[in-house]
Amino acid sequence: IDECSDGFVECDSRAICVNLPGWYHCECRDGYHDNGLFSSNGESCEDVDECEMGRHNCANDTICFNVDGGYDCRCPHGKNCTGDCAHDGKVKHNGQIWVLDDDRCSVCSCQSGLVMCRRMVCDCENPTVDVMCCPECDSRLSMQCLHQNGLLAYSNGETWVENCQQCQCMRGEVDCWPVSCVPVTDCEFSVVPEGECCPRCVTDPCLADTVRNDITKTCIDEYGITRFSGSAWTKHGTECSLCQC
């Protein structure tokens, strides 16, 4: 279950919900870090002071000014600052917008010496939207299901068998139920072979997993004594031989 997309989770405004197999967690957004309390809803996320830590790109006589969730590069009074930004060793002009080289889903801009980077806004109504950055806009992807091992993907309606359960991908969610087996009613001894899910009839009771004991069927031992079905006894003259009817 994707608790994040289903609206089960409300993270703090300083955190973002991240789905995990079988669980989720509220991860601090860029510009915030956890204060060590690690609250489940992200309340322990606090602002990172990029100015104090030196994690800023202010240049051209601008001064770093910390703001909630980021920082600003401001020009001191009386100085003529260009408003250009330094980013990845390159100069970006004031007002310039670009896509990160190592992340095509993030857009950056230079505003008065301040570099602001954020995830691309997904507009599913736009026919040219990048589905790699916005998978929720691709109906084919949203309808797929992951196999239990996390390696295989199934499309809507596909079925498979896993651990003796019949599974089916139903509009992006996996639904499983026990494999239906034909009941073995016409045999006394049955066994479920390794790697299979349904029982088979066998003639040798020593190979059987289950034995239906019919007490009306009896055995005659070596002394002519009648033994009931299901009974066991030690063979006369030896302590190491067990007999069973």
TrEMBL record:
GO cellular component terms given for this protein: cytoplasm; extracellular space
Protein keywords: Disulfide bond, EGF-like domain, Glycoprotein
Positions of the EGF-like domain: 1-46, 47-82
Protein name (Swiss-Prot/TrEMBL): VWFC domain-containing protein
GO molecular function, one term: heparin binding
Listed InterPro entries: EGF, EGF-like_Ca-bd_dom, EGF-type_Asp/Asn_hydroxyl_site, EGF_Ca-bd_CS, NOTCH1_EGF-like, PKC-binding_NELL, VWF_dom
Species for this entry: Danionella cerebrum
PANTHER family: NEL HOMOLOG (PTHR24042), PROTEIN KINASE C-BINDING PROTEIN NELL2 (PTHR24042:SF0)
Domain VWFC intervals: 83-138, 143-202
Top-level taxon of the source organism: Eukaryota
Family matches, as SMART domains: EGF, EGF_CA, VWC
